[in-house]
Amino acid sequence: MKHFPVFLEVEGRTAVVVGGGETAARKVRLLRAAGAAVRVIAPSVTDELASLERAGEVTLIRRLFHATDVADAALVISATARQDVDAAVAAAAGRAGVPVNVVDNKALSSFIVPAIVDRHPITVAISSGGTAPVLARNLRARIEAMLPPRLGQLARFADSFRTAVKASIPDGIRRRRFWERLFAGPIAAAVLAGDETRAREAMLSAVNRPPTGEGLGQGNGIVFIVGAGPGDPDLLTLKALRLLQEADVIVHDRLVTPAILDYARRDAEVIDVGKAKGSHACSQGEINRILLREASAGRRVVRLKGGDPFVFGRGGEERDHLRTHGIAVEVVPGITAATGCAATAGIPLTHRDHAQALTLVTGHGRDGEPDLDWPALAGANRTVAVYMGATAAGRIAERLIGHGMAPDTPAAVIADGTRPGQQTRVGPVRALAELAAGIRPGAPALLLIGEVVRHADAWMDVERRTQDRVTACINQ
Ligand SMILES: C[S@@+](CC[C@H](N)C(=O)[O-])C[C@H]1O[C@@H](n2cnc3c(N)ncnc32)[C@H](O)[C@@H]1O
């Protein structure tokens, strides 16, 4: 390691920035965020720096640099893009014993400025030792994605209870365990979800309870009911990804693809409830029991569901069951099949010209026959997305046409949407059964019905081919 990493206290201290361009303005922003009293030396400056001066937030000295400018500074940054001025700033700072950074000039700098992830008071600094700043910024983006946006709130929340926890659990080892559980448990999850009131109540009761065990009421784990999206791992939310990497147990159903499970923490236990031993799915009762068992053992459980947990996903039932048993639950939305499939098939679900409503329905009724409001679904200017409707596609088409839908209304069957091998079959609604019959057996498939399907890439291909055939006939 060539540089010694430190975090410098600059609150109320003078930081000198030489230069008045955009790079200098960026450094000024950072220094001000850290509470420094910033002095800018430059003959001319950007509008932003000028308005900061007018607001009294920086001191601006509109002239060329003098060696004496660095005398009382805690640090100096030179961002002039002029070799001679930068060299003079570095030399003056060196003589005065003031740390100096010259932007993009490692040789003239006595310190380097890292790429930072700011979740005040948590700060992550990344440095490539000045060798590859773009790589450092790249890493920063990845770390940004991994850290919850409310991490700083969590640190401040914990800080506000430090004294109370110390008084309640004098033993250092037990206290450390308490904090470890806190940061992995429901109280921290509530802070990160923005529910600080609930977290504070839970924390107060945890701290006030006689310290008979280090759990202090946090013995229960937590269940995150997480939407995994339609299959493409790139469609996971940042939150879903983070939770997958922190989970002790992942309980997933059949729609969750192996490519998504690859993002789970390596040593997490993975329970497939979509395919139990006898190769049929666990009942909802069994799934509820598994979730309760794992959370009651104090584990951090991710209940991973295809698409969105609250769209034909029984997320509501599972959440209610866990809550009834006093288990903390958080629901994390995912991209539902309709939006995922529509995007990859090139079908806008609404359109100002021909779809002012989007209706999501299930095609799976108690006896195979879905009990739906057919006259409403057959109406004009709407898009109907049918989940679990591939096997009933023929009957669905009959009902819609029977209730007034034009038989030539465009329809699409999208199977394995967003996954490798996605199939998009388009045609008139009267041919829906044939379209559905052509998909991979067992593939999850969505039906989309309405004028918007004319915008599908596949529909345009068909029209182009038809047009080519017509042109070929005319030319013969
Ligand atoms: C039990 S529902 C779950 C829906 C899920 N919660 C969602 O929001 O997408 C299962 C149905 O969703 C649809 N589906 C889910 N993933 C799909 C995919 N990748 N491609 C096409 N349809 C999909 C199919 O209609 C499938 O039968």
- At the fourth CATH level, what is the homologous superfamily of the largest domain? Tetrapyrrole methylase, C-terminal domain
Tally of helical runs: 18
Structure classification: alpha/beta
Q: What is the spatial order of strands in the main beta sheet?
A: 3-2-1-4-5
Round the mean pLDDT to the nearest integer and report it.
92
CATH topology of the largest domain: Methyltransferase, Cobalt-precorrin-4 Transmethylase, Domain 2
Provide the CATH top-level class of the largest domain: Alpha Beta
CATH architecture of the largest domain: 2-Layer Sandwich
Radius of gyration: 30 Å
* Percent of sequence in beta strands: 15-25%
Low-confidence stretches: 210-218
* Major beta sheet summary: 5 strands, parallel
| Form type | globular
Compute the number of structural domains: 4
Oligomerization: single chain
The overall strand count is: 17
Could you give a short description of this structure?
The protein contains 18 helices and 17 strands. It is of the alpha/beta class and 476 residues long.
What are the salient characteristics of this protein?
alpha/beta; Rossmann fold; 38% helix; 18 helices; binds S-adenosylmethionine; 476 residues; Cobalt-precorrin-4 Transmethylase, domain 1
